[in-house]
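Researcher: For the record, we're logging two predictions in this thread. I'll number them. Prediction 1 follows.
Model: Prediction 1, sequence and structure:
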Amino acid sequence: MTQTFVGAEVYLPGEIVNTTVTVADGVIVEIGGAVQGLEISAHDKIVAPAIIDVHGDAFERQLMPRPGVYFPKEVALIDTDRQLAANGITTAYHAITLGWEPGLRNVARGRELIQSIRDLALRLTVENRVQLRWETFAFEALDVIELALKGPLLPSVGFNDHTSMTMRAYDVPVQEREFELSPEFSIASLDDDRMKQRILSKAQRAGLSQEDYIAMLGKVWERRSEVPNKISEVASRASTAGAPMLSHDDTRADTRAYFRNLGSSIAEFPMVMEAVEAARNHEDLIILGAPNAARGGSHIGSIGAADMVEAGLCDALASDYFYPAMLAAIDRLDREKRADRATLWSLLSSGPARAMRLNDRGSITIGSRADLVLVDWTKGQAPVIEGTWIAGRAAYRIKNHLN
């Protein structure tokens, strides 16, 4: 089917112009030409590349809306998919944790989620991909990682080490910890009562008592000497498959250098300027959290995403734990004049596409996949998605814009 968007401000690479966009057979075939086929009225609206979310774990709220209360995976994933479409997200990387703790973030549950996404593919409205959010102490995840890397939609691989983060010395803020594999990394005592408070929310999520969680943590910590070899093995498998790799929550230049040498060219949610500068100095891509930008700062005291955007030190924003944060972030950044709108929108579209090596989408250019959004961004009001198209197919509409 051929359709032409008429009357909109169109977000082209590096500029915003009032023009037409024609789509046929799922791709953009003409910009600025006459109406062809179905006319879609977009007067006083914006037509922009659809949003690509490189890291989102808000789906966990559908899976477990209250601690220990699980809902069927199919119900949760279908509802998540509809949320994505309504928020203008046509490509989503679900950050599925492959961890050693039981419960919501266990390896076995991760495997089931990956399979459920595959099984539901024909019933979903947008492209649901996976970020393998691998906890590096979870050696039992390697088979699941291999399975996912051979799947129909290539995942990304995120290297996470919340185990070491939990085990850091009590007087070391999370943003000041050393590189986790460094011999200088200072370690907390498991026998200290402060550990019970530190792991409380984790124990609740895992369905364990604090004592049982600490006992399990102690056993897993004994794997530490084997972690570097496992990281190298996973990095090698991901590199062979061509999967993008991300290091998560970096605090040191050494951390970024370590993962860069393994083929990871993306710093995801770096926590301090040292890590940001280490990434930029080596032309690594930098991903920051949209909630951080939307709220005006990090909820855990890390660097401010807005400041990084203004300084040109952010290549992409991710929804993290709240899908609406993507639009809310650029709305606030626009009001604060952190960058021009074309640059801000690129943080949701072409930037994430480049990070994930998705060369067929993320911009309104001839030949690109017609992943588009229709946006009402009335002056002084929050932007609202009025329509979402994936490969030219309407995934979400709230008004009839046909002439």
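Researcher: Logged. Prediction 2.
Model: Prediction 2, sequence and structure:
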Amino acid sequence: MDGALAMAGEVRLGAAKFTGSGMTSDRTRARMVDVLRQRGIKHEKVLSVMSEVPRHVFVEEALQERAYELDKALPIGFGQTISTPEMVAIMSELLCDRPGGVPKKVLEIGTGCGYQTAILGKLAKDVYTVERIAPLMDKARRTLRDLRYYNVIFKHADGHFGYADAGPYDGIIMTAAASHVPQELTAQLAVGGRLILPVGVEQQQLYVIDRTESAFQQRVVHDVRFVPLVSGIV
């Protein structure tokens, strides 16, 4: 079920579906970005992209009024959630703040509804995204197609193993918590690349792993709460 969309285009801002109204309007999204800045997100490219991407179209219509609440991880079906705007901003900023700057080639583990994918698609030149739940992947693919993204390649697979055929990557983001750091993912990092992932079962922490010429450098930056990374595909 692999598929490809080719280079990111512009959101069709004239379409009401994408601009929204009330609590899904451009103004609401701008307020969300203002609060992210107040909470310490400094990377202007990340903030700019989050002001452009209509988060509400990635959740069910009944939940769209809550899409821009900073601390809400909303359900997207199949026991999965869309990460909070603040966590998306934190992980995206960490990815872009690596020594090599904004990555050109990114791997995402856990496509989910496609919101983090959309953010990455406006930051990086090429995005490869892996999802184990086929209906979620297909829905995310349709949403990103409607938003005119053409630089995202999808793969229906177990995220533990990454997407080795397209590696190595300047950046890798995992949107589910692994019990340990998968060696398959660190092996797919380019020299100078950065891996960001939540690790843990009962207690989870956000890890940042940088690959240098001679070693992997690891640090913990936040306590977090993500859905678990599950093996297999459905």
